Predict the 3D structure of the following.
Amino acid sequence: MKSKAAIAFEMGAPLRIEEIDVAPPQAGEVLIEVKAAGLCHSDLHAIDGHWNFNSGFPGLMGHEGAGVVVEVGPGVTRVKLGDHVVPFIPECGVCACCRSGKTNNCEASFIDSGPTSRFSLGGRSIHPFLGLGLFSQFAVVREFTLVPVRRDAPFDRLFYFGCGATTGLSSALFKAEVQPGSSVIVFGLGGIGLNVVQGARFAGAKTIIAVDINPAREAIARQMGATDFVNPRTVDGDLVGHLNAMTGGGADYTFEAIGNVELMRQAFDTAHFAYGTCTIIGIAPDADLLALPPTALITGRRLQGAAMGGARGLEHIPQLVDLMMDGKLDIDSLITAHLPVEEINEGYAMQKRGEGIRSYVTF
Ligand code: CU
């Protein structure tokens, strides 16, 4: 079948809208109609070559979306026609990571999706980013990437659970396991960091310090539950000292949600020396190194990372969607622009300029 799609033909180039061919789903595969696809920064990292994704160009980006099952290949059992689904990290259920409960690192997510791509243009294969490729109205994905979700949740909110919202919320709730009454510092208030703030608030944190150089983020951070906002550019002297003074010597939980090693070091240094936990969420360039004095760990600080916030999609995404539908999470305020797919490059330009929080496209 034909499908309207946004294609990355080469590194750094703007996406081009094309009418591509989508082959029918094979065994274990599912054809979905993508109803909304979010513009997550990771697509940009891949397009710009900062993140060496394994499938290459021409690439079909888009890994954050929601849609409806329109056709299933032979042997598919996880979903059926008409199901509403959020594609997420695969959960094959049989690899070592899945069996140990770390489904966010399912080994199937590292399989090169190139040879099995169902997307092509003029006979040339197009590689789906992360095995998904949701910047296409119709997409064939592997069954085990799909999380079925309740049908009354709107697609123009659901898509966000395919990456940003789930990653931020899960980092606070399921990875760091923020405790009631605790103190939290979040570095970087993009579409993920703001969800960390919101997750910490939902978990009952007492102090939530939101840190960003963009003063426009203060209002939304407070709306998400931040009790304090710190702009590093307006702090007199040393930011780490300033934050440690605010938390009485270091926070219980700190998070880095940008992917900058300098900020990671600050997040580490502002976690309490004896019992603080620093969680790294942002994806730094492959070549970067994070330097730390080992004695800072000996004292008891913990440093951890969380791909997709450590979320187990099948288990956690429906829970988080329920919280949104019950009005306990504010997803609406974080979704700031809706664009036709033809304007997808403008959507990414807005993101680079720091305008808005999360935008999404429809076809
Ligand atoms: Cu993402």
Observations:
- DSSP finds eleven helices and 18 strands in the chain.
